[in-house]
Fold this protein.
Amino acid sequence: MVKVQERRHLVLIGNGMAGINTVEQILKLAPSTYRITVFGSEPYPNYNRIQLSYVLEKSKAVEDIILNDRNWYLENGIELYTGTTVTHIDTEQKIVKADNGMEVPYDKLIVATGSNPFMLPVPGADKEGIVGFRDIADCQNMLHAADQYKKAAVIGGGLLGLEAAKGLLKLGMDVTVVHLFEEIMERQLDHTASLMLQAELESQGLKFATGKQTKEFLGDDRVSGIRFTDGTTLDAEFVVMAVGIRPNTALAKKSGIVVNSGILVDDYMCTSATDVYAVGECNEHRGITYGLVAPLFEQGAVLAKHLCGVDTKPYEGSVVSTQLKISGVDVFSAGEFMDAEGLSIVRMHDEWLRIYKKVLLRGGRIVGGVLIGDGKESSRLQQWIRTGTVMTEAIHNAIMGQASVETGNTAAELADEEIVCGCNGVTKKHIVDAINEKGLTTVEEIKVATSASRSCGGCRPVVEQILQYVLGDKYDSAAAKQEAICSCTTLSRDEVVTAIKEKGLITSKEVRYALEWDNPEGCSKCRPALNYYLGMIWPTEHVDEKDSRFVNERMHANIQKDGTFGVVPRMYGGVTTPDDLRLIADIAVKYNVKLVKVTGGQRLDLLGVKKEDLPKIWKDLGMPSGYAYAKALRTVKTCVGSQFCRFGTKDSMGMGIMLEKKFERLDMPAKFKLAVNGCPRNCAESTTKDIGIVGNEGAWEIYVGGNGGIKARLAELLCKVRTDEELLEIVAAFMQHYRETGKYLERTSEWIERMGLESVTEAVVNDLDNRRVLAERMEVALAQVKEPWSEILNNSNLRERMFEEISISTKQD
């Protein structure tokens, strides 16, 4: 009888991204080689530390950034001990000892203890209210502080500090970034790029104190401010330290493993101790410690092969890249970025568009680059830097935007071991194998199978290039771009909409059952989307599922961070009367409104209204809802126009009021804004609206697809019309075409780029029969709309049910 060899025991200390990514690769290479035990000090399974900034700004919950849930560990036979810290490694007896008394023997051991935030060793650094920014607990501390305090300081103008500062700013805090150097992100950006980034962040509300060295923290038990070495001070009720990280070497050092700045490792991640390896931020390789995720995954790939007995090239270091995720402006840096002797520089600086591009060459080969304001080519530029690609005229034109030039498929040039997805450590070979073995044909399928593009999405263009490269003539670019509407199904938006029509599905529950949703209850992403699609397809048959809507839409008011609400009454075209203004003022006093704010859409926002007062304030106002909370028409902004302005050529106020009264309350895929200018001077900012209308030379010009938000986009000219009747029909057709083909939460700026302006023009302008049919379907939809405040006031059962419970969500006008 042949004796089955017992699997060797692999122990991993550290449940973070570097260690678990190494384990994932081991499971792919040799799933039966090791019995695996994982220790993690935090109480969570493996999560994406890169996305902590999204948790901080509340755009994602902790559950959204989990990479491997507890079921994954069970399915792969991994023993997981969370909330457990290893305190000693006996390298002679090969045993690890934990703080709960556990002693676990090992055959192979990986130390992946990561890093710790560096806390400035200055007087007062131990005061309450001073934290680092490294894990979920830090995020929770910061969220709690934002609820209690107003003034915050973030010490450190690097990548992590700026992300922390922007997150606190979005939570409503007054934030100042303190930086030792005169220029922020000086390790990734040159002088010009740094100044551009700082100017952009200042325009968004951040403050900066650069060239400042912290001398001490002021206050008694709790921090109240910072004193700098130049004698100046800064008030601060909460301080985040983001001045850098240090490899967490305490365990290794205590256990007799050789340590310098980090745990010393060779090219295969071996430490000084037999069968003990170190990977990630805790190690030091060839004198370098890395704090970015891509190098850690590259190390993990080498270590995994080494542990599985697979031939592999040694790890020789990494080319690092940086991408700022939440600043609202594209920031990319990779490789060399400072001018130096022996380098040739390709540079473009457009101050009006706020774009800066710089590519550095050594011997004609690309060795580094910086992109500010336009990061479309960041993925390909990063690959060109990694492979040392020779600069060509085609590549130059592609990066600098001087021409639309085909530069070939970068995927063909990538080595199999190149990491394509830095967030999740997915190599080109992993993607290629998944495509071939599983018959994948879309980027979304690749994301599900490999996790490539699952996190920040920056690698998606390269993933699609690899798909195109592997499939060749079988590649379908349209199909490749189809994404599942959520994780409950693999079906795309178009497939779901088609099935609803073909099967006559009327409710969300029917859709989830008939289309075999993995989660029969749906999720927070698909429930509101399905409710919208059903209402759009069956306007007279579908009954609105209010429980599927975001809280703001359920409550018909914008919830604020303190649990109160903002109430915005409708002001058609931004026009009001003295009587209405007096009424609003009286009601603001009566209900102790905290703030009356003039919005960007020429309306008044009453902020700080208690939940229980909402129906009463609506009744006293006697005005219709301004829909400042909804995925619907928000405002129609107007200039004075020909009624009063000496430059006005058309009645912009009259047209704006007509449009707003016609299309108010209609559900749309996303929030929708219009503006009408009476002349080309653009006082109403028509060129940054979903639909912008400009009076010019006795006619109306219609612009579409503009956006003044985070992803700013100038609107494009759709057409020019002579009559008001034609204008109304084209606007109706355009809105209905967007309603019928747009993805839920997809703004027109994204929709236009996906659909193509020519296609939209043909559908709503040139094809007269189709235009008429779209406008007719719009009329059917408009016939179903109701004024929500009145509906609730007139229905006591609905009023009681809708105001029983609230859960915080979504954004406001």
